Amino acid sequence: MKQVDRIGIDELEEMAENMYGELVKAVVDVEKRTMVVDAGLHVDEEQLLLESGSRQSDLWGINLYPDSFGDEDFVEFDSMINIRPAQGNRSRSVEDESTRNLIVEIVEEIVHG
User: Fold this and answer.
1) Domain coverage including residue 52
2) Count of domains in the chain?
3) I need a labelling partner for 10 at 20 to 30 A (CA). Which of 60, 63, 65, 86 fits?
């Protein structure tokens, strides 16, 4: 598990092979515009960011599918840490479109081919 500001798709492909075969779990901090990758659970990545000063309300769990890099299927919004009724997010997805768009923008800044 590591926090990244830039990461290559080749490294994500290797992480996917070592973990789940097709996906890499990640947590994005939308305020600090950073991401933690390569853990078995989103909650572990979330904890790393909280310990480094991130705010819970800024953290969103996603899955990255390296084989779909460059396609809309590259980012999947599905994580237990996203269930936040107090923030108006009542599902494992990210219900707010502007937040989803921001997450995709950050991922596109961080992940390169």
Assistant:
1) 2-112
2) 1
3) 60
Res 45 pLDDT > 80 = yes
Q: HSE, CB side, 13 Å, CA atoms: give it for residue 60.
A: 29
- Of 89, 85, 111, the closest CA to residue 33 belongs to 111
| CA distance linking residue 88 with residue 13, whole number of Å | 33
The pair of three-digit structure tokens given for residue 21, joined into one six-digit string? 């075969």
Q: Which two tokens stand for residue 28?
A: 């994005």
pTM: 0.97
Helix (H, G, I), strand (E, B) or coil at 109: helix
Task: List the structure tokens of 12.
Answer: 């994500």
